[in-house]
Structure formats: structure tokens, C-alpha cells
Amino acid sequence: MTELTGHRLTLARQAQGMTRADLARAIRATALRRGLRSGADRHRIRKWEVNGVVPDAHSQSYLAEVLGIPQEGVDARPWPHWLPCGVIPLTPFSTVPAIREALTVDRRALLLAVPGAALTALAADWAHADTHPLAPASAGRPVGGELVDFLEDTASRLTTLVAEQRQHAAAPLLDAHLATVSDLIAHGRYTRPLGLRLHTLAAGLCQSAGWHRFDLGRHQDATAYWTAGLHSAHAAGDRDLGAAALGDLAYGAAWRGDHTTAAAILHHALTRADHPAARALLHLRRARALAAQGEKKETMRHLAAAEQQFGAAATRQRPAFCTWLSDADLAVDSGQALGDLGDPGAHRLIREGQDLLPAARAKTRGVFLAYQAASHLDRREPERAAVAAREALTLAQAIGAPRCVQLVQDLTPRFTTYATGEGVLELLTLARAA
Length: 434
Known about the structure:
434 Repressor (Amino-terminal Domain), 3 domains, globular, mainly alpha, two-stranded parallel sheet, Serine Threonine Protein Phosphatase 5, Tetratricopeptide repeat
């Protein structure tokens, strides 16, 4: 399989929206701040990217500062491997490079935050890209159906473990499976149907691995996995699976407070998603992003579309990535959107959704309880809010869900006004200890 040939510096620069001239100016400015001078210009940047010239140690140090990478990251790995790849462009052969970028060891200190503009551009590229039929791989060792059956079955077992068990070893096992699948894609010999299964499996593993990192607060790691999932789905020609990867990227942007990027990504995702369940989820997330920006008319339009598409999905088998979507999610997310718009009916919907949630979805229950606590605070009901927040915190600690813990901790400043309320001090003490 052909590899992506773009230099890591090119990809990192493009992810920041910089031309070669822009990067050269930034390097010169960095040197000047240190009381030094740099001769970097666009021609020198081109030599680094195209001609294989290695920048000297000073220039690499300036590059690291411009790109926001700690110096220890530069010292730990040789040029150009300390550079992040940024957003890898979609091509028929970009799956393996994107997965390998996601699997880079110890990313937390080295990974560069991907700007919202770069993610939006990637979504737009996906929305307008031609889908090339996946060709069979005719070189390498043969890949048989039994091996793919085994990998699919094991991946399914991993991703359907209950939350209490998934916390123990999900990340290394998912990564090991993903590395195996990417190696088979890159070096195996297989038929087109098996190639489609391998790419689809890779996309699902990327989605699960991304959510695991996201729940641990490693948001840029999650972005890298979800981006790799988009590449895998695109290569497989699965538009719904690609739209799901964009939906996850949008969710991550919204969580970071970048609702403009989230709404833009979801707009592109909706242009090609086909299955009603997939469209319902995307409409629901776009409603949340628009409500956070105060866009009432568009929010209501997307909430109505989500409900209509959710109803239409009842007669069709759902894709695996959205089998979990239920009436409970529709109610709670609609309530959250209406709450952002100041609608008094929001609290009722959130409470109804909480009651409808299946007991098996413990992590989601913790998140919904945190939402319920926030809704009670909006209604100046601190005692009820404390009960819901305490339950969310206890559940999140039991199943290993740091994202839910963070949701409760983010609420604690709002509780300080009600310190004398029943259960409030106990909650604040638990939150500080979490």
C-alpha cells in the first residue's frame, strides 16, 4: 500500500494555517525574542520540507517554540520525528499514516493542539471528496477471513465491556488491535471485501480508542484517533461511519467550548450521512452547538429534525456506532439545548431522559446526573442539585470516568453560594478529594 509522502513539517505547518513565509517570520521573531538572529526564509523552509536538509539545533528549538512543543520533546526524538503530523489530508492511502500518528507513544507532552479551522477544513474536504473504490492488495502475506473474524470478534468484546471493566486494560488492548489491523492494511495481501472489513474495523477501533482517551481528559489524543477513524471510514467508502467520526470531532470541539467549530463540522457531516439514526445524532449535536451560541431558530429546527430522523430509524437496522442512541439521549440532549436557550421546559426533559436511561449505561448515567445537577442549580434548588451531583461523583469514581468527575467539579463554584444547604458541604468535600 502506498504511504503518504508529505513531510511532517509540512503537515504541522499546514495544521497551523501557516505558509512557508509565515513560518519563517515566526522563527525569526522567536530568535529575536531570545536576543538572537535567524536566517530562516521560505526557501530554507522548503529545503527542510522537500530537499531533506536537517535544521540545526537552534532552528529546531525555534520551531518547537513556534509550534508550542516542549523542548524535552525535541531532545527525546530525532528530526523530524518529534514533529506532530497535524491533520493528514484525505487520500486513498492516508489510513495507515493517520493511524500510526494516533498510535505514537507518549503523545501527551508532544501532541500539538489542532486548530478548529484545520478540523473544519478536513470536514469540508471529506464532504466534497470523491470516494475511490478500495482496491485489493496484491503484495505481502495473505490475510484470511478467519483472522479478520477473530479481530472483529475480539474488538466487539472489548468495546462492549461494562464501564467498570473497560477502565482496566481497554487502552493498551485497543491500541494493540489497531496496530495489528493497520499492519495488515499496510503489508497484507487481501481481497477487496476483506480490505473493506479491515478498514471498517480500524474505524471502529479508532472511535473506541478516541472515546477512552477523551474520557481521561486527553482531548488531543482523542482528536488524533477520531481523525484516523475518518480516514479509515473514507477509504472504506462508508459515509455514515465517516460522519460519525466527524460527529465525535465536533463533540470534542464543543466540550472545549469551541461551538463554532463544532457546528461547522456537523454541517459538513450532515451533507453525506445517510442512515436516519446517524442523522438524528448529528442533528442533536448540532442543536447543542447552536444553542450554546444562542441560535434559537436553528436550534429548534435541528431538534425537530433529530426527533423526526430518530423516529424514522425505528424500522431500519442501525450501524454499530449508534446502536446506543435512545429516547433518553434525545430527551436529555434536547433539554440541554433548551436550557442553554433559557427555556423553562429544559429541566423536565433532562429528568425524563434520566428516568429512561438503561441501567447498563453507567457512564452516561453519571453524565446525565451531572446535567441534572446543573439544571437544579439553574432552578435554585441546591439540595436536589447536591443529591444528583453526589450520585454522579460516586458513580464516576466507581467506574473510572474522569470526564464525569470533571463535570461535577466544574459545578462546585456554583454550589459555594449555597454552602448552608443540606448536603452541599458534603458534596464540596467529596469533590475536592476526587
